[in-house]
Design goal:
homodimer; 255 residues; alpha/beta; Carbamate kinase; 14 strands; globular
């Protein structure tokens, strides 16, 4: 049975209108599904309102104790519960989860760098998630994990999506879709319609050599191919408003 | 099988030290269990930090749109997820829930008064909660519900505890314990050790007539007896630090 795992980022979550459109499309997807969300700038906005400074290293957020409180409130509370309530209104039996809930995602605090309370994933309990999904529940996963010793940790939402997808690959035929600001991986970054419909592992090699795939897209595609190597059937990179459409975006598979 | 439902209020939740002691005792309770928590002054503190005014009518908080955001963050995020992570560290497979999650508690927005986004409970899905509990999961319920149309609503934690207990009464022998600032219902409100060990419906009648039970204790005991009438085996009113102890507090039963 196919399981659709959709990851939406901060840009969609920040604007209620965009989020509601996405949730319309998500709720129309047939069969079992799971949503992973980020929180984006909503956390920065709340931190500012609270007079908490946002510390950055190389453009990335440092999660000190204050910021951990903020992201726990924003990702685990505000964003997650809003999505859950909106999905319930669309007839989807949503259940909001952080990695601590049902112990679904264990992580350890990152040692390298001074990132603060950032967690790198150790394991995701696909069995528990599959049990919930088979009961007709749609998990909605916030980008928070825990270390098993009572410590919540901030974890990248893309990573959560990949780890969740991999852990469920033995239970379902998983399609993992990353909603993205572009329509897919572009052959020409100045032409929004130059979407590459399909990328295999061999294609990726070539596209990278040719410089067509570069910068931030390289780790994204590496992650996608790693997910495929771990049993995920296919990874789709598409724009949020194209979610419901057939053959939209770039499909990544091993072969 | 006995199911222990424990309700803890804001006073316990506000101080990490008190909360951790409570969670130690809670985790030692044998058999299936469920925790309902309030949030208390933590919401007011955050609102103040955010520059949001707290409006009160007759000493009770009005939940306007801004305050709903705050309680969603504090109750649904910060408090709920901290408890879940701390219970996981104690070997309890906790799952944080609002009423929107798995559609467990539906409510409607209160029409009387100008309370804002306050929900009065319509129904609690005991079947769903029982299914989770039978899987070895310990639900941790935040005082938030939803109206089924996408609207989250702020709901009194005592009410949540009673409704959850009643909905589970056909599935388990439910003991509902309210943790309270006193050791129980006192015969003499100036003597902390004058706890009345047991109150039946008939006792309550008499105690109220005699003026021994008065003020805020009257609705508390009425709620307790109503829960018993709806099938809850017994209601216990005790101090949080006495939770693990046999024969502590006041036991309320019909007869």
């Amino acid at each position: 049975m196919t399981l659709n795992i959709i990851k939406v980022g901060g840009g969609i979550v920040e604007k209620e209108e965009n989020l509601n459109l996405l949730l319309n499309d998500f709720s129309l997807l047939q069969g079992p599904k799971l949503l992973v969300h980020g929180g984006g700038r909503l956390a920065t906005t709340l931190a500012t309102q609270m007079g908490i400074e946002t510390h950055m290293i190389g453009g990335r957020r440092v999660t000190d104790a204050d910021m951990l409180r903020v992201v726990t409130m924003v990702y685990g509370g505000l964003v997650n519960k809003r999505i859950v309530a909106q999905l319930q209104a669309r007839g989807i039996n949503a259940l909001g989860l952080t990695g601590a809930d049902c112990n679904v995602i264990r992580s350890h605090r990152r040692q390298e760098g001074n990132w603060g309370f950032v967690g790198d994933v150790d394991r995701c309990d696909g069995e528990m998630l599959a049990t919930l999904i088979r009961q007709g529940i749609t998990p909605v996963v916030a980008p928070l994990t825990h270390d098993g010793n009572g410590q919540l940790l901030n974890t990248n939402a893309d990573t959560i999506a990949s780890e969740v997808a991999k852990s469920l690959a033995t239970h379902f035929d998983v399609t993992l879709t990353f909603c993205f600001e572009k329509k897919g991986v572009l052959r020409d970054c100045n032409d929004d319609d130059s979407v590459i419909a399909h990328i295999s592992a061999a294609d990726f090699c070539l596209l990278r050599e040719q410089g067509i795939v570069a910068d931030g897209m390289v780790p994204k595609l590496e992650n996608a191919l790693n997910a495929c190597r771990a049993g995920v059937k296919r990874v789709v990179i598409t724009r949020a408003d194209q979610l419901g459409q057939q053959d939209s975006g770039t499909v990544v598979t091993l072969e």
